[in-house]
Amino acid sequence: MTLSANSSFFSPLSPPCRLSRRLTSSKLPVNPRSFNTFNSSVRAGPIALTTAFSFIQLRRRPQSAFMSSLPSRALTTADPKLLVFDSDEELLDSLANYTADLSKRFCEERGAFTVVLSGGSLIKSLRKLIESPYSDLIDWGKWHVFWIDERVVPKDHPDSNYKLAFDEFLSKVQIPTGQVYAINDSVSAEAAAEDYENRIKQLVCKGVVQLSPSTGFPKFDLMLLGMGPDGHIASLFPGHPLLHEQVAGLLRFVTHQNRRQSE
Ligand SMILES: O=C1O[C@H](COP(=O)(O)O)[C@@H](O)[C@H](O)[C@H]1O
């Protein structure tokens, strides 16, 4: 599993709120075995919604092929780093430490901490956060939780990223229900994407989701994104046309027919 932790920006909103996609560097956790320049912080957006689909075994593809398929503008973070850990335990400790530090900083500075989650193996990687000392130290009441991608299925469906996060993480911490932004699962994928975009716009206008002073575009405080073995993030598979779009809305929906353009 690969984790990508970024504060990042997303794309266009109508006035008075405008958004754009951009990645920024983040201060990364301590005690890695080694680290190198990491140019793959890849695309954090758009948030993707997928319609119901059957899981298909992924074809393995070297990550370097994925990297070279990315548009050059996706490879321009200021100070990206790759941290390599000797064990999962060390990675999870470092991830918890990093998240708790950021949470403290943002909660104290502005009274809110906006966190974007993916589905997949990432969620189990958050387990240290629900254990002592982090569980007691973190100001969960100030967290606002979003999803980078979601399957358009009922919230109790086994494919639901919300269900995964709820069962393994959210049900074990005290984040107010109204600050957990699951998709509307009772409408089409297109309508759910539009609804989610509108809710994010409202949160931007309320100041819960911040705007970058330099670009005027919104940004989330922390994005925790799992990466599949073929390099896919957020249902965006290598070769998918969305990866090459110059201008995209804040959210996109994809169907199982066009989910994997590379296959
Ligand atoms: O399709 C998806 O896969 C990625 C990666 O999952 P992982 O289990 O290989 O870590 C996940 O982040 C994303 O939310 C999901 O829709």
What is the gist of this entry?
By secondary structure, the chain is α/β, with parallel strands linked by helices.
Task: Outline the structure in words.
By secondary structure, this protein is of the alpha/beta class. 23% of the residues lie in helices and 20% in strands. The chain is built from five helices and eleven strands. The chain has helices at 63-69, 88-110, 134-137, 161-168, 189-206; strands spanning 2-9, 22-23, 34-37, 47-51, 81-84, 113-117, 143-147, 149-152, 210-211, 218-227, 251-254. The strands form three sheets. Strands 1, 2, 6, 7, 9 and 10 form a six-stranded mixed sheet that branches. A three-stranded parallel sheet has the order 8-4-11, with helices on one face. A two-stranded antiparallel ribbon has the order 3-5. β6, α3 and β7 (143-147) form a beta-alpha-beta unit. The longest helix is centred in the middle third of the chain and has 23 residues, at 88-110. Mean pLDDT is 74; it is low at 1-47 and 50-76. The ligand O=C1O[C@H](COP(=O)(O)O)[C@@H](O)[C@H](O)[C@H]1O binds at residues 1, 118-122, 149, 161, 225-228, 232, 234-235.
What key phrases describe this protein's structure?
263 residues; six-stranded mixed sheet; three-stranded parallel sheet; 5 helices; 23% helix; binds the ligand O=C1O[C@H](COP(=O)(O)O)[C@@H](O)[C@H](O)[C@H]1O
